[in-house]
Amino acid sequence: MSKEGCKGCSASVYLSVEDLYEIIRDAEANTGADLVEEDIYKSRLEICKECPDLLYNTTCKYSGYIVYVLARNKKASCQKPGEKKW
Question: pTM of the full predicted structure?
Fold first, then answer.
């Protein structure tokens, strides 16, 4: 794996907007009541978007999760080792 790579994908993996929306809808349907409020979700996403460890504009380098899904989950947290941002 390259230095820029994440745990769950390779540099050749990019998601279309449609694919991203489908993944988010599926995750929200499966998560149910464990979703954060919209203002918290937006705040978390803004933090992720500014993070230098965000890969392909979608994926956390440390967890391999799509941040648009991770940030929506009430039980989730930033996965950056030693520096949790939310």
Answer: 0.73
Q: Are 6 and 60 in contact (CB under 8 A)?
A: yes
| Residue 4 pLDDT class (50, 70, 90 cuts) | low
Contacts of 34 (CB under 8 A, 6+ apart): 73, 74, 75
Contacts of 11 (CB under 8 A, 6+ apart): 2, 4, 5
Domain residue limits, the chain: 34-77
As a whole number, mean pLDDT of residues 54-77 equals 92
Distances (CA, A) of 26 to 20, 29, 51, 68, 83: 10, 5, 25, 12, 29
- Quote the strand ranges of the chain, DSSP E: 54-55, 59-60
- How far apart CA 17 and CA 2 sit, in angstroms, is 25
Q: How remote is the C-alpha of 16 from its chain's centroid?
A: 15
